[in-house]
Specification:
By secondary structure, the chain is mostly helical. The chain has helices at about 5-20, 30-45, 60-70, 95-100, 105-115, 145-165, 190-215, 215-220; strands at about 120, 130. Strands 1-2 form a two-stranded antiparallel ribbon. It starts with 5 loop residues before the first helix and ends in a 17-residue tail after the last helix.
Length: about 240
């Protein structure tokens, strides 16, 4: 995933202000105060962060590497279990997986990111085993800005797409939410675990379908008829 540009920052701020302006009860003075308060709160959060990583995480590449690792025959044993493999060298190796998707340039940093994000673990023998294909982001990083920009813009785009279709039988993108206002505090942890289990099952099913239908590495960079498609699932708990 590339580093966010100023255009993406503008997209994020534009989407945020647009959502605020839709609230007709919010006066200009109140919006100005919210803007100032938000900036001060953000400055405090940034000041408390650890030094930024020298390079952004490419979530798509890491997920694709683990996907191939868990499904390609050369990386599975006779029972279909993913092999523990060496980091470098010819296949089967982690480096070879990066080469297969034409991202050998990202291998050295990508191997570290695989471990940091829990996608792969190193065994006592120095080999690597695959774990999760999807990512739970556990700390603020520079590339999180792009994730937030995409999330906000995609939610708005999905709603606009669904509301712009006139035919009742038209296929609309899924956009659903469920929530209760009075979950007991002692049920928060069970909810987190249950939501993770259910969400992981859904994401894994969607991810498997998407990976089987995506274009090859070269086509994804050049073909005009290729689109970004996916499903974003998140749980929330608020006071």
């Amino acid at each position: 995933m590339k580093t966010s540009t100023h255009a993406e920052k503008l997209d994020l701020l534009t989407a945020t202000f647009a959502l605020c302006l839709l609230d007709k009860s919010l006066s200009s003075q109140a919006l100005e105060k919210l803007t100032i308060d938000a900036r001060h709160a953000a400055e405090r959060k940034v000041a408390a962060l650890k030094p930024s990583r020298s390079r952004s995480v490419d979530f798509d590449v890491l997920g694709h590497v683990i996907y191939l690792w868990k499904r390609s025959s050369k990386y599975l044993d006779e029972d279909g279990v993913p092999l523990s493999i060496k980091a470098r060298g010819p296949a089967p190796s982690v480096e070879a997986l990066f080469r297969e998707i034409d991202r050998a340039d990202y291998f050295e940093v990508g191997l570290r990111h695989l471990r940091q994000l829990g996608h792969a673990r190193r065994t006592r023998k120095g080999l690597y085993r695959p774990y999760h294909e999807t990512t739970i982001i556990q700390e603020l990083r520079p590339e999180i800005l792009e994730v937030l920009v995409q999330t906000i813009n995609r939610v708005v785009a999905t709603v606009l797409h669904n509301t712009s279709l006139k035919r009742k039988d038209a296929v609309r993108l899924i956009e659903r939410m469920t929530a209760v206002p009075d979950l007991p505090s002692n049920q928060v942890e069970p909810f987190k675990l249950f939501a993770r289990e259910q969400g992981a099952a859904l994401i894994n099913t969607i991810n498997d379908w998407l990976e089987r239908h995506r274009g090859d590495a070269g086509a994804r960079r050049t073909a005009e008829n290729h689109l970004t498609a996916g499903l974003h699932v998140f749980a929330f708990v608020e006071e």
